[in-house]
Amino acid sequence: MKGCRMRQKRETRYRDARPGQSLVEFSLVFPIILLLIMTLIETSRIFQAFLAVGYAARTAARFAVTGAPPMMTTHGPESCQALGRPDGSPLPYALPGEYQTCRVDWIKHVGREAAMPGLLVNDLETNVARPNFLGVYVSGLATFSSEVSTSDHAGAPRTPVEIRVVYNHPVTNPFFSMLLPTVRISRSIQMVNEPWDGGGAEVPPELPTATALPPLDSDGDGWSDVDERDIHGTLPGNPDTDNDGYWDGDGSLLLPVDDYPLDPDNH
């Protein structure tokens, strides 16, 4: 009877201790689970920003290689004269001197517009170290014979143009932002401009014409190795296949020509 009473006391004491034990376990595990969830969310945001920056770079590069916007008014409403400046300024481009300026401005505008749906961009932010900064950089070869790219130049026809998009992704996780407030994401795309006819296009130099090599004649009998093997049936490495003292081919200066190169009894 006494043993039963003691066992009941121990069970009651154990039941009373379980709520407190569960609370301690939860308080230890919950911060870890919360940190994992917040890390997963932040990683997903960074990956989404990486995809948006890459899409912006590709979109701007595809726009750049077409030579758009064209310089001449004959191209209609898509020309530099008709489009004007992407920032809405009423000051027109002084063409043709500002043709490259017009192209670069619109390439940057297309890249920024492509990035806007997927990024939190501050249009007024010009500090490259601040969060939400988005920069689109254009560089290309000024002429077909140039070897070094020029900044803020969209390149001549048939030359490479490079578009680089940089974005300072703000870290929203309070634990991480104390150590790393922003993550810089950069993507570069290089394409070759199409051979459009506007803006002082240059024609690339003609490549030298390849000179055909003479057919191989290993034994010097006047017949090529291919002809000896496929047509005449003689040995490419032996000028006298039948060993009758007469040359197989038709160009011997040492031996007379053999009209029957496979028959030692006939010449």
What this model shows, in words?
The protein contains five helices and four strands; from the N terminus they run H-H-H-E-E-E-H-E-H. Strands 2-1-3-4 form a four-stranded antiparallel beta sheet, covered by helices on one side. By secondary structure, the chain is α+β, with helices and mostly antiparallel strands. The relative contact order is 0.11. It has two domains: about 20-190, no CATH class; about 215-265, no CATH class. Residues about 200-205 have low confidence and may be disordered. Helix 1 (about 1-65) runs antiparallel to helix 3.
What key attributes describe this structure?
single chain, 267 residues, alpha+beta, four-stranded antiparallel beta sheet, 5 helices, elongated
Name the average pLDDT: 78
Shape: elongated
How many strand units? 4
What's the gyration radius in Å?
A: 39 Å
Q: Give the end-to-end Cα distance, rounded to a whole number of Å.
A: 133 Å
- Summed up, the domain count is 2
% residues in beta strands: 5-15%
Number of helices: 5
- Give the % helix: 25-40%
* Elements, N to C (H/E): HHHEEEHEH
Strand order of the largest sheet: 2-1-3-4
Which structural class should the secondary elements be placed in? alpha+beta
Q: The biggest beta sheet, please?
A: 4 strands, antiparallel
What are the segments in which pLDDT stays under 50 over at least 5 consecutive residues?
A: 199-205
Please give the structural blueprint.
Elements: H1 2-65, H2 80-83, H3 99-115, E1 134-140, E2 150-151, E3 160-170, H4 174-177, E4 182-192, H5 225-232
Antiparallel strand pairs: 1-2, 1-3, 3-4
Helix pairs in contact: 1-3
